[in-house]
Automatic annotation (TrEMBL):
Coiled coil: none annotated. SUPFAM superfamilies: Protein kinase-like (PK-like) (SSF56112). It comes from the Eukaryota. This is Protein kinase domain-containing protein. Gene3D superfamilies: Transferase(Phosphotransferase) domain 1 (1.10.510.10). The lineage of its organism: Eukaryota, Fungi, Dikarya, Ascomycota, Pezizomycotina. GO terms for molecular function: ATP binding; protein serine/threonine kinase activity. PANTHER family: SERINE/THREONINE-PROTEIN KINASE TNNI3K-RELATED (PTHR44329). InterPro entries: Kinase-like_dom_sf, Prot_kinase_dom, Ser/Thr_Kinases-Pseudokinases. Residues 1-258 form the Protein kinase domain.
Length: 305
């Protein structure tokens, strides 16, 4: 047992050992050595999209933790998805509609937040997921729908749209040959850090670029638009602040998160109102379906076989 996100959790999974490692580390190495081939990129992309579609249609489950760390390669260079605990992915990878709910959850369950503020957000969270308190217990009960409250609050259609968003970010990493969507991110470091920031493009074919842009509709700026990491130091990249010091770094981050919380609440207010009126579009950002993503990928693969 360990402290995991301020909660007790079981650590570790029993699975086959895949010695080639994860795409997080494999992709930049292939790019650096000129061995990142379009045929492999297409194969992995189609395998990922097919796996997501299979989980949704055949297994009736969602996959909320789609990132390169959770994709390893078999000895035959096929992708293998791991980590099906369903706790969710970091906010920098997740769709904005998932983050809108996740930010509410984080405030509602943080004991360092003043009681009045926490109760306000907890009440809202309970409206979204009535049994959210039971999912926040120490006991590992492995609920059927997982622990990802921000995903449980979504309908099946909304979940698919959120999965497509994550898939789009992953496709960008695969075709650009990088470890993650952000360079020098505050929240994560990589063995080989990217020289690109999503959605900058250098190597991705135009057809795939258009697909990725459609998959990631609704994307928002990240904290990296205000504060970046330079090696082990945080630096300002917000023109509002002329002097770079600790207090301004904190203030830039504070302003960013205040704006994010406001945008999240406005989005959820709109969702609530339109759901009550029967007008809510589950694919609010008009992203393609998993079927449509697969169709584009397969057509491109056939064209360039």
């Amino acid at each position: 047992m360990c402290q995991f996100g301020a909660k007790r959790a079981v650590v570790g999974f029993t699975t086959f050992y895949h010695s080639r490692g994860s795409l997080r580390d494999i992709l930049p190495q292939l790019r650096i050595h000129g061995r990142l081939r379009l045929s492999d990129q297409m194969k992995w992309s189609i395998q990922l999209a097919t796996a997501l579609e299979h989980l949704r249609i055949s297994s009736k489950i969602y996959y909320p933790d789609l990132r390169l760390d959770n994709i390893v390669l078999s000895d035959k260079s096929d992708i293998v998805m791991v980590d099906f605990e369903q706790r969710g992915v970091w906010c920098e990878f997740a769709a904005p509609e998932v983050n809108a709910i996740e930010y509410i959850r984080l405030i509602a369950t943080d004991e360092n937040v003043p009681d009045g503020v926490r109760e306000k957000y907890l009440a809202r969270l309970r409206k979204l997921v009535p049994d959210c308190d039971a999912l926040d217990q120490d006991a590992y009960i492995n609920p059927e729908q997982g622990y990802a409250i921000s995903w449980i609050a979504l309908s099946a259609g909304e979940q698919e749209a959120a999965e497509v968003y994550m898939l789009g970010r992953l496709l960008w990493c695969i075709f650009e040959g990088v470890s993650g969507p952000q360079k020098a991110a505050v929240w994560q470091s990589y063995r080989w850090e990217s020289h690109l920031e999503f959605p900058e493009y250098e190597r991705t074919p135009p057809t795939i670029r258009a697909l990725i842009d459609r998959c990631t509709r609704g994307r928002r700026d990240t904290l990296g638009s205000k504060v970046k990491r330079q090696r082990s130091k945080l630096i300002l990249c917000d023109p509002e602040f002329r002097e770079e010091n600790e207090e301004n770094v904190k203030e830039a981050a504070r302003q960013f998160w205040l704006a994010e919380i406001e945008a999240s609440e406005n989005f959820l207010d709109l969702r609530d109102a339109q759901r009550r009126q029967g007008e809510w579009n589950e694919n609010f950002f008009d992203r393609p379906s998993l079927d449509e993503v697969l169709a584009v990928l397969r057509a491109y693969q056939t064209e360039h076989a």
